[in-house]
Amino acid sequence: MSLRLSLAGLVTGLAIAAASPALAAEGAPKPPAQSWSFSGPFGKFDRAQLQRGFKVAKEVCANCHAMSLIRFRNLAEPGGPGFTPSQVAALAASYTNIKDGPNDSGEMFERPGRPADAFPAPFANEQAARAANGGAYPPPIDMLAKARTYERGFPKFVFDIFTQYQEQGPDYIVALLTGYRDPPAGVTLLPGQNYNNFMPGHLIAMPKPLSDGQVEYPKGPDGKSPVPETVEQYAKDVAAFMVWMAEPHLEARKRLGFQVMIFLALFAGLLYFTKKKIWARLPDHASAH
Amino acid sequence: MSGHSTYQPKTGIERWLDARLPIVRLMHDSAVSYPVPRNLNLLWTFGGILVFMLVAQIITGVILAMHYTPNATMAFNSVEHIMRDVNFGWLLRYLHSNGASMFFVAVYVHIFRGMYYGSYKAPREVLWILGVIIFLLMMATAFMGYVLPWGQMSFWGATVITNLFSALPVIGETIVTFLWGGYSVDNPTLNRFFSLHFLLPFMIAGVVVLHIWALHHVGQNNPTGVEVKDVKKDTVPFTPYATIKDLFGMVCFMLVFAWFVFYQPNFMGHADNYIPANPASTPAHIVPEWYFLPFYAILRAIPDKLGGVLAMGGAIVILAFLPWIDTSKVKSMTYRPIARQFFWMFVLVCIGLGYLGAMPADEPYVTISRILTVLYFGFFLALALIGIFERPAPLPTSIADSVLGGSGARLGHATASEPQAKG
Amino acid sequence: MAHATDTTGTEPTRRDFLMLTTGAFGAVGAAALLVPLVGQLAPDAQVVAAGAPIELDLTPIAEGQAIKLFWRGKLIFVRNRTKKEIDEAKAVDVATLRDPQTDEQRTKAGHERYLVVYGNCTHLGCVPLGNAAGEPKGEFDGWFCPCHGSHYDSSGRIRKGPAPLNLPVPPYAFTADTKIKIG
Asked: Which residues lie in coiled coils (chain B) (predicted)?
């Protein structure tokens, strides 16, 4: 009957609608999926990677971007980069211009940092940041790994429920940091604009922030860094660090999650059999289905 | 349901209390001896699941309110403070935010179940309308709760939804100003939304009590839609039969809930809400939470401001009139071959509208939204017409017959071996 | 009203075991839920971190003066005692005290000039007077609590009035001659 036809038509229409966002988002390619140590149900951060990522964030990103949701003490907390408390205290004290006050004479003063202090921001406020960056605001990067994403589209987003893919943020960040290109013919850049393959609309105010060899990584026993000091590697490391900044309890969450899932699965099984037992008490149960 | 109480106070204290406040009797009658149709399937566990979700949301919500700061300059960071510093704060907040989504998952299953099995038909009209009221209160609560983190989606969602009221003629602008407590969405708005977000769940709980009262007065519908004829043959006592089944359904639901909380906590949220609210910049696509998307799509499908608002409101309010729109005497769609197909098409239309609500307001989405909006309301028109000419399949003579294969009378049931069932 | 009801259990032991296990699981689950629900009441990481030890320079405190400061949200008095006050505190016969403690137990050897005590009366938590010049110091040259009339001596010990205990001494140590670290 025609009803079935209309149902079929509806489904087809939806499928077309679902397929078209890929066409609609012109030009901006999907960021390639990276492999991350923290993905999946048993994911854990790679401590060495977080420490390298912190170094990149501290030496490069923090010159323009705030990450003030992070406190120095977080760097020594479990599930994080795994710095020791004394390393953290020394790091905090190396920032000598932490604003505090007022003191007894009513004046604000500067003092060395303590582990409880927030990571100092490079600019006092958004206006100062804009003024120093040609009108563009370098957003805080502490939450960016959760605040940036890209459209997965149907049906991928349904599969993501089961594959637990949720690393759109870091994948996008890696793609962006490695996505600087010369503008294609026909695109003229205004002053303060840069061309990036993965930026929506391709025009980005942030100049290419990373270059090979820019950040010195800790040396292994052979006197060489165990990982290459390349833009690619920097981008991955800093993106991993940004995931930790955005979700510092990720490891605890996944660990507790596994325990809860096992418990609930066993409990559900027990309840199922208990339910069968109880319903079997009905005298006419044998013939009931 | 009908019938007198079977509660028998055993001790002196119980008798003393029963004579003064028969609360134990009330509990016994409504959660122990209450007769439940014996053929309920697992879809009927969603009522219990919804009570569980309401309690879970209230508990986690009250706790979050202990740590949250309802101030436009501090709200965003106070949520991050919960996520980072408060002991188990990340767990409580993810439970609450995903709990809202799971609450709606459960309520949509519950609503569609009621529609499929005709649970809105006489004598359950008031029960059904109370359900629609709960649904509306849930939407208001969820909307205001989503504003509280004061991220970009919070702010712009609040702006867009409150501006809907400006579509009302004459008084619209005044209403919006009063909603805001200012000339734009700002700190006063956040403060009042926090207060109302705290209040509304308790109003929901109140209406839930009425909903359950109405349910226990008329008795539960069941998959056959045939009313209970013989309490002995057709029903089982709520405890232990329904209790254990509800528990099983609840734990299965909790498995799904936990999957999202622990493994995909931001799947149902929106990335933009992790950016602090910025009145100077609107996100590229403003999208409400997924559970509002079908209604949002209807809103956008109408090319007129007031018309869109009315269509969206109508899409919800029309549910309340379902008992009178549907003209068929047969409750369960199991026995309604034509209505059943329309029902499944309606489900697809709702899913389709949900998808379109998340898409940008461009072609081809706008045209498809319009078609689906017509189909959405068309379903209700169809229900009114189908009932006139549809020839339903033969109904079982009783619930017991449907369970026992048509010869329910052959077994000696009701041996009355259970103490609380005597009387 | 009788329903389609039970037959008596045919396998009592196995059924009981299953019921017991299920019940135990439910109980364990409910108990586990309490951990986060109650645990969140404990001081959060920010509060704990803010309670780290603090350093204090004592040089600005003139003899006979006391200052107030806060550590972990608790009021602390630091008093630079006069010779007379020290002598009075040492002369007391400890056996006569309500809460017997010697002055030596309440100060650091070699730094008897400085007395560091929590600044809330041990009766019901009011702040005793006696820090600023001109405030009543009570009958024993220490502090006087205006709420219910407790008198503390120049070692912060309870001498008269309803309070049961001496003003407690917070954990602290001298890091230099005139520098202390509280906590």
From this structure: none
Q: Which residues contact A244 (CB under 8 A, 6 or more apart)?
A: A38, A45, A50, A53, A79, A80, A81, A250
CB-count exposure of residue B64 (10 Å: 0-12, 13-18, 19+): buried
Summarize the confidence of residues C144-168 as an average pLDDT. Answer: 95
| Cβ separation B85–C44 shorter than 8 A | yes
**Residue B49, number of CB atoms within 10 A of its CB:** 24
**Chain B residues near residue C2 by CB distance under 8 angstroms:** 232, 414-416, 418, 421-422
Coil, helix or strand at residue A209: coil
pLDDT, average across residues B10-19: 93
Of A252, A258, A272, the CB nearest to B248: A272
Shortest alpha-carbon distance between residue A288 and chain B (Å): 5
Tell me if residue C148 is catalytic.
yes
Indicate the DSSP class of residue A185: T
Single-letter residue type at A37: S
C-interface mutation test, from A258, A282, A285, A287, most C Cβ less than 10 A away: A282
Mean pLDDT lowest among A96-105, B294-303, C19-28:
A96-105
Q: Which comes out higher in pLDDT, residue B362 or B99?
A: B99
Give residues with Cβ within 8 angstroms of B39, minimum separation 6: B222, B223, B224, B399, B402, B403
Query: With 60 as the cut, is the pLDDT of residue C15 above it?
Result: no
> In this model, does residue A198 exceed pLDDT 50?
yes
pTM for the model stands at 0.91
CA B152 distance to own-chain centroid = 27
Please tell me the distance from the alpha carbon of residue B38 to that of residue A214, in angstroms, as a whole number: 72
Q: How many of the other CB atoms lie within 10 Å of CB of C166?
A: 23
Separation in Å, CA of C2 to nearest CA in chain B: 5
Considering the candidates C3, C111, C123, C148, report the single residue annotated as catalytic.
Answer: C148
Looking at every residue in chain C, the average pLDDT score rounds to 89
CA distance B113 to B119: 8
Burial class (CB in 10 A: 0-12, 13-18, 19+), C90: middle
The pLDDT tens digits for B308-347 are: 999 999 999 999 999 999 999 999 999 999 999 999 999 9
CA dihedral B126→B132→B137→B142, nearest 10 degrees, is 150
Q: Give me the interface pTM, i.e. the ipTM.
A: 0.91
- As a whole number of angstroms, the distance between CA A144 and CA B63 comes to 27
Starting at the edge strand found earlier in the chain, the sheet holding C54-57 runs C54-57, C179-182, C172-176
d(CA C126, CA C128): 6
Check: CB of residue A117 under 8 Å from CB of residue A111. Answer: no
Residues of C in contact with A283 (CB under 8 A): 4-7
Count, residues in chain B = 423
